[in-house]
Design goal:
- The chain has 119 residues and is of the alpha/beta class.
- The protein has a single domain, classed as HUPs (Rossmann fold).
- α1 links the parallel β1 and β2.
- It is globular and about 35 Å long.
- Pfam families: Usp (PF00582).
Length: 119
């Protein structure tokens, strides 16, 4: 089984991670944890040589480590990978799910866009 878990670091994401961790999953289940940041036009014009992507990757790295630990502690047989993607969350999640060959997509999000989340 392949599960794509889209997270944003919110309490809803943590709930989704715990739900997966507490379920009896088939052996060798793969969980791909994805975080998508929405690139805004203004930021794109100010982003020098991919620095913004590196920033989001570093920020999400810590959240990923926590999610991986929870999943592996509950079910060591899980195969867990992580990635940070720039783009529209809806499109990026669906595209990655197709590329990954996901059987299940789980979205743990509070539903705020980049500007709402900022404020």
């Amino acid at each position: 089984m392949k599960i794509l878990l889209a997270t944003d670091g919110s309490k809803y994401s943590k709930t989704a991670i715990n739900e997966i961790a507490n379920r009896p999953l088939p052996p060798k289940t793969e969980v791909c944890i994805v975080s998508v940041y929405e690139r805004m036009l203004l930021i794109n014009t100010l982003e020098p040589m991919g620095v913004l992507h590196e920033y989001y990757t570093e920020v999400d790295h810590n959240a990923f480590k926590g999610a991986e630990k929870i999943l592996r502690d509950k079910n060591p047989a899980l195969i867990v990978t992580t990635m940070v993607i720039g783009g529209s969350p809806k499109s990026a999640i669906l595209k990655e799910a197709e590329t990954f060959g996901a059987d299940l997509i789980i979205v743990g999000s509070h539903g705020h866009g980049a500007i709402e989340g900022f404020f």
